[in-house]
Design goal:
4-stranded antiparallel beta sheet, 44% strand, mainly beta, 0% helix, 196 residues
Amino acid sequence: DLVLPDACYLERLDPSPNNHIHHFPVGMGEWGWQIRQPAVSPLARMGHAMALDPTSIQVLLFGGMPLGGPVAGDTWTWDGTTWSQLAPLHAPSPRMDAAIATDLLRGRIVVYGGYDGTDLVDTAEWNGSDWRLLVTPVHPAVPVLPAMATGPGGRHVVLFGGEDDVGLAHAETWWHGQLAGTRTFGSGCGSPPLAL
């Protein structure tokens, strides 16, 4: 079981260039967005990926396209008050529009695909302190703008849809989890629902 502190937050970056954080407290009375103005924050950007890091219980931000470009490959954490830029030894190549989700069972964040001027079909994992590029002989062919989320029971991540290199939308369902001692993407039924 993952136990979150009482001060659990959901965050969203404002796409305007003012770098404000809108803060949504959970379980603290009324519900609503509250603007935050941290002293340090990532550059204003779009197409970045964010997920909860289960090892630190902080929000992890990766990549995106800062205003004025080029695509970024930086890694940041948000602790509910402060942004901190990390300097991991390894990192995925800079990209925007990647899919991201938390694998709660293994305490990892999974990033798939994205765009850097070309379509990317690689997979990387964040372990709380560093990135690792995974070798996945089978993977989704749809690299841009898929949606990805933690799977039922936190046992894996599920990816659905996305856009291919000619702009066509797809309805494939994939899951990423442990298969006979290896990490790889496994194909679903082509569209929801995915039998688990």
